[in-house]
Amino acid sequence: LCKPTVLLKPSLRDTGFTATYQFEPLTNLQYTRDQQITTAKGIIMCRLRSEQRGHEVEVMKFCFDKLGLDIVGSVRAPGYLEGGDFFPAGKTLSMVGVGLRSNFEAVAQLMTEGAFGTDRVAVVRDDFEQNQDRMHLDCIFNIIGSNLVVLAEDVIGEDSKVRRVVDEYTRNPTGPVLSDKHHGMYQQTRQGVEFSQYLGDNGYHIIKLTRQEQLEYGCNVLNLGNSNIVACHREASKKIVKSPHFE
Asked: Cα separation of 100 and 43, whole Å?
């Protein structure tokens, strides 16, 4: 995992060689959400934006192969997709963030190949901020239950200077769509919808977290299902359990 390189040069003494060493350690491999996503179709291997993290995808693919898990697709250049930007939102909707790390080329590829397996794909665009502190969609947002989410409060509203906007693509069950805004069987059906409005339109109640709570990983909640969550932020956790919509 350190990817060592040993460089040997001739020497006139001792063993006859001198050696120098170079290492390219996979220092971010513990963040095992980013190397792949799991859609309704199965496991998709991602393509990470940082060059030093590229080999992590190979390691995770090796592990999945050893476990006997099928890989149904991979993101190819020029697409970039990191797992922190993907949310399965029930049986009919996938959400994908695009901005600092992931790009639309990857989303378009997966829609064209039918890899999401859902009727709708919501592309959540980070057009106005693209801050390293909020590099992924899961930095400012998370799904807690079937009708409940947490969301950083400063991205909410049409007047927010760091708002997120959503383009929605809907699958045509009869086959490929012929239009300027289609990708395979998916056609754009909504454009530029403010994110909190889009969430409300889809029946989600929003627990608002402050920017400080977001910076302290308040949104990084692991949802185990059936109202079982693992959280690392005390105040954010209190807000979640006190919500009347958390069941």
From this structure: 23
